[in-house]
Amino acid sequence: MKDAEKIAAANRRKQDKKAYQPKFGKESKTPVEPCDPAALIEVQHLTKRYGDLVVLDDISEKIVQGEKVAVIGPSGSGKSTFLRCLNVLEDPTDGYVFFEGNNLCDLKVDINLQRRRMGMVFQQFNLFNNMNVLKNIMLAPVHVGLQDLRKTKRQNLRIKFCNLFRSAAKKQPLQPIQTSKKQIKEDAERNAMRLLTRIGLADKASVYPSTLSGGQRQRIAIVRALAMNPKVMLFDEPTSALDPEMVGEVLALIKELADEGMTMVIVTHEMGFAREVATRVMFMADGKIQEQGPPEAVFGNPQNERLRDFLSKVL
Ligand SMILES: Nc1ncnc2c1ncn2[C@@H]1O[C@H](COP(=O)(O)OP(=O)(O)O)[C@@H](O)[C@H]1O
Ligand SMILES: [Mg+2]
Description:
Elements: H1 3-19, E1 39-50, E2 53-64, E3 68-72, H2 79-86, E4 94-99, E5 102-103, H3 111-115, E6 118-121, H4 133-163, H5 181-198, H6 214-226, E7 232-236, H7 244-259, E8 263-267, H8 271-277, E9 280-285, E10 288-293, H9 295-300, H10 305-314
Parallel strand pairs: 3-8, 3-9, 6-7, 7-8
Antiparallel strand pairs: 1-2, 1-4, 4-5, 9-10
Helix pairs in contact: 4-5, 4-6, 6-7
The protein binds adenosine-5'-diphosphate and magnesium ion.
């Protein structure tokens, strides 16, 4: 083979290799862009794939504080996956999720610390059936409270140890500890009882979830998420598993939270609710947000063909 042919063949091979490079391989991740400081949640080029199935296809979106975003769309369009990516319960295949300016896809960011401020409520309540209602609500606050206490104590031990080798002028102060195990549990219990009273279920504190109705269980699941004092609530079809007569009480509680200013993203089939409560409605299909806007526009004057088709079936 002549030299020129050899070089041409090598170049072709190089080109082929480039063409076959996986688009979403670790090396070829989309570069991260500066996030908008005004956004509470921002996703950049969010992509989720299961094998060949593209569930979320390069979504970039921002949610600001106080917004109530309703996500609607046909079954299988990626609504749950989108929601689960927002608090990185699902790892995005590509793209980034920012929460209060922190990149949740960055391994250096403490994801558990960030996730504490994002309450999540599922279709299936997900209460712990082996614990009474009060324990269910107290579990997470007590867990993180004790975790933080242990962390501070460990840090203080380290400071004390290092101080042994420091001159008097260079000794570092210990971090103040203003709480105790007992105090953490008492605070969590007081807060849990306050939340139960709020939803009129204080008398159910010591019963097990299996003895309650679906509507009661879901309202408890909601206040359990509230017990962590979240900045945003993510609801994934919170009323889909309920008997029709219980849907109202759960929606009423969610509406109350919305009226109080809670930022929320809610995947729902309750179009009337979306219309009434949402400040923005997103219509998803084929892994993309096909259309979005204020409820009056999305429901009253839909532009997208798929959306019109969807609404004609559900309204
Ligand atoms: N863990 C998974 N593994 C494989 N495919 C999945 C997984 N989770 C979801 N999917 C698929 O992703 C698509 C979108 O699912 P989902 O986000 O649950 O849709 P929606 O909530 O809109 O009904 C569906 O086709 C579903 O089968
Ligand atoms: Mg779903």
